[in-house]
Amino acid sequence: MNRCVWLLARLPARPGPSPRHAGAASVAFRSLGGLRHPSRAAASSSERNGGRAPDTALFVPLHVQPLAPGPEGDIGAELTQPLNKSEVLKILNKFYKRKEMQRLGGENGLDARLFHQAFISFRKYIMESSFLSADVHIILNDICCGAGHVDDLFPFFLRHAKQIFPMLDCMDDLRKISDLRLPPNWYPEARAIQRKIVFHAGPTNSGKTHHAIQRYLAAKSGIYCGPLKLLAHEIFQKSNDASVPCDLVTGEERVLVDPEGRQATHVACTIEMCSVTSPYEVAVIDEIQMIRDPARGWAWTRALLGLSAEEVHVCGEAAAIDLVTELMYSTGEEVEVRNYKRLTPITVLDYALESLDNLRPGDCIVCFNKNDIYSVSRQIEARGLECAVIYGSLPPGTKLTQAKKFNDPDDPCKILVATDAIGMGLNLSIKRIIFNSLIKPSINEKGEKEMDAITTSQALQISGRAGRFSSMFKEGEVTTMHRDDLVLLKEILNRSVPPIETAGLHPTAEQIEMFAYHLPDATLSNLMDIFVSLSQVDGLYFVCNVDDFKFLADMIQHIPLNLRVRYVFCTAPINKKQPFVCTSLLKFARQFSRNEPLTFDWICRHTNWPLVPPKNIKDLVHLEAVHDVFDLYLWLSYRFMDMFPDANLVRDIQKELDNIIQIGVRSITRLIRASEATSVSGAIAVPDDFPLQRTEVNDRMLNLEDLPAANQEQFSSATKVPGQKRIRGSKALGYKPAEVQSNMKSHGQGSLAARLVREGLLTQEMLKQLEREWQVHHNNNGNFPTGKKDHQNGSTGTGKKKK
Fold it and tell me: How much of the chain is in helix, strand and coil states, percent to nearest 5?
């Protein structure tokens, strides 16, 4: 026995206490310190969870390598005897089936899912190891010989479970880190002063922001926080024009007006870039209703709670008054509300436009996708009218140029075709807003894409652009393209805007780093998942959607980067639907990991600079993506200056690229015609990111909008299903013709069609159109007809209404 004690003393230290062989199962069972008393374990588990159990599906098990013999040999076999692996397997399976063991596992944090995963790993480890640690070997030998009970394995099973699920040992710490119930306490500088909160509430064009900016300009120091670069630029320009020195800070740009580089007393910034440690006399937070935004709401919450200013002026919809008041109650600050009314009248017309022939100067047609933008602008210029085009992915310079072209009374361009990008950030001289459709794709709080009618808030924001106080039109008008939509528009506008109830929060880099300290082997995406799962918020807050963050985290997971750098890369503001931009981020990260600076020459090679004006829509889309890549470079350059050293040179070529894109947008109908020729000839395949509608016949792609006007009417009449009434506008919501369902299902496409509609990639109008084309193609035995498409009754881009 002395030899046994001497050999056991020579064993290397292992994580956690482990029982020595004592010949009695009860001794081994009680000796493991990691096993909690059942009653205390249950109580502490309930206290920790706070009524909310973690989502254990997010717990990714780590791999534990089977042991190989060390220099000291197999001590367990030397003390007892070699194990019979077939008998050991029977013992392990018996252990798994024991209800008492599953109950003990639950009391120690192992629910049914984790218990099963831990057992599979434990069994594999035992069976595949060429030798086992002496303590495990001795216990298994005792059980095989009848000197022990199968339950004696639990302490060793639990030790193994904590090795593959390290979060089990630190759940209390993880819950404390992810406790988001007191956000005001995160900003000690703001809590150290008594702030005055002024809420300027009112609709679009009511002067609310103007009054806040006047106070900002009169202050000794101030900060303006806006949702867009265009708005920050506007206040930056306005301040300096008023002889109030003002700096500009956006994610991609820093402009110091002082020639010696000293900071000005005033700064205009995008809201994510505001400083919560610098003191100011006055702060202005614009568009406060975006505090509910599923992706960006955290930035407004951070600014509202954290800006260290004597006066905080908040501008936005009255729907946010109650929430802001409650948030400020938690900080001990009162809110003064100033209400404003619209400065100019606006009228909802009793008639729809119905035809582009009825357009008049000052009209703005609002579409919610690029396809409709291209289609409508082409049809307008086919009537001999010039139109300006504005949509979200255009560079800010191009948007301003198009806005200036439309606003210029001496310019022949009198019509504007735009997305809801005009809702804020641009001063436009619009007489009448015309909704081409009332269906807009959106992302809900779960990150799911939906096709639904626009909200009252969105409708008011867009409609309010008509008849602005500073424009040449002192009265505004609103209507729809289709008569069927007008009733729904009036209904939407007559609804009261529901009050905003919650404010967004987002995990910080510091919180994720603390998580990683406890879970060093977890991926960043998994850390974020676990954080959100364990996070606790009170009724005034919600955790913002982190799907875009996780997408980038998974994309660069294989690249060796430290956690802080990886986190920064994952917060880069890029559109994950643009493959070229995502590929560029991946290359940036790989180059960074090699400690190789991304020079001007490198970025020029990557983007094939210099570039030429676009020849078709595909080229224009690519140029917009390249502009976004330059933005990404500039954004990273302010966070890693040594690795992205040529920001000034990149900014110079970005300005050149902006001019090139402007050339393309000015001649957008020519680009569409060039794309038509390419598509119809079949010489070049239409790219996947080409934004026009497509139909597939005989494995060849044909754009309906690309056909010459003379052929479109023939095509429309040839493909129309007899007796089927065309559904337009909002009537298309929820409309599913029986022919569509039966034909799509007969071709095995029912589930695909439903998924494409659900994800917003296919609308009901497009679905009906595909069904008609397929029917005609089938009736003609594969002879695809040529014909003309009815412009008036073309696709409106409407989709299925959410129920």
Answer: 50, 10, 40
